[in-house]
Amino acid sequence: MESDAFEDGGIVPPKHGCFGENVQPGFRFSDPPPGTACYALIFHDIDVALDHGPEDGLHWVVWNIPVEAGGLPEGRVPEGTVVGRNVEGKNAYLGPGAPAGPRYNHYVFELYALGERLDLPPSASRPELLEAMAGKVVGKAAYVGRFRRER
After folding, report:
1. How far apart are the first and last CA of the chain?
2. Does residue 29 fall inside a structural domain?
3. H helix intervals, 7-71
């Protein structure tokens, strides 16, 4: 998993933040594990605890990304890809939005290689996706970005 938008562990540009242009960064996927039928991706802010619980900030969830697409182009998803519900209950990319301050929040793009396509409606969110992926994951990769608002 690679991106030209920012390096792994690097700073996510404001263009990809929810208070900027809110443009989903592009990613290239290479060397899929044998038996990969499609991919799923979960994008979340691991530094947030919602409602004083263990749930973090889910910014984007997509599945059935075709292997032959070779990744996700900037600002859109390949045909056949399903976009699920984010923390706001919307079927859309929600860019990083960590507050200004001395520390950055860590945003993780978790990529799962799946052995079969998933039969999930677009109304699904992370819990349903994780349940549907059980027993179908043939590989995993992650890409991390750091973000904070300037002011």
Report:
1. 31
2. yes
3. none
CA angle (137 as vertex; 134, 138 as ends), nearest 5: 155
How far apart (Å, rounded) are the C-alpha atoms in residues 47 and 59?
13
pLDDT value of residue 151: 74
β-pairing verdict for 137-147 and 10-11: parallel
Number of structural domains, the chain?
Answer: 1
pTM score, two decimals? 0.96
Residue 59 belongs to domain spanning: 10-147
**4 lies in a domain?**
no
CATH code for the domain of 140: 3.90.280.10
C-beta of residue 60 within 8 angstroms of C-beta of residue 41: yes
Q: Is the pLDDT of residue 150 over 90?
A: no
135 CB-near residues (< 8 Å, 6+ apart): none
